Amino acid sequence: MSTPLQPLITKVGLAAIWRADKTGLAAEITHIVVGTSGYTPTNTQTALRTQVAKYAISDGQQLSETLLHVTAVADDGKAYWVREVGFLLSDGTLLAVWSHPTEALTYKSATAELLLAYDLSLTALPANSVTITSTGAGLNLTLSAELAALASASIAEMLRGVKQQDAFDSQDKLNQQQGQQILNLMDRMRTVEQRQDLDHDGLLTAIAANATGLITLQNLFSKTTLGV
What domain of life does the native source organism fall in (predicted)? Predict the structure, then answer.
């Protein structure tokens, strides 16, 4: 994503454009410079206040007569907050400068590359008076590495989600199995209780039958003894 900037055109930059225009050529932006000081720019500046790095334009596009899209890659091992940005012409002239007293554009880590992508509005200059000269390398390799990192992160997140879902499914299956086991155990307990009830009823029946038989035998024995 590009950051739209409305930089301040410097006096030396405007003079360089006039010189180029007299030869029938347009001034060429070739580099981006970045610094760490935050302030309100002036058109008398010829350099950044605290420049920390200079990067060649990797790619660029003229979006309109006064709007340019420029990109560069900060691929060194420096770490800093970007609070001022300058655009240099091919002869080293500071064409335009942007800064803010309190707001930083971004942060450059020492361990990661930073893509500098800006939509540069030059409405204060004559139409088509400035062009872009890039290294011609483009940003395919840089972007492919970044996209690969994003893809890897996305795949890792998806894998974590799949693993979590598998864990949930496994737990759900375990809960279902445990529930079924409890139901089976309850059925077995009811069966045992029914058997116990049946056995209890059968035992009472047997006792009653035995008692009846015993009484019958006692009666017969008594009649025999009495000679009845």
Answer: Bacteria
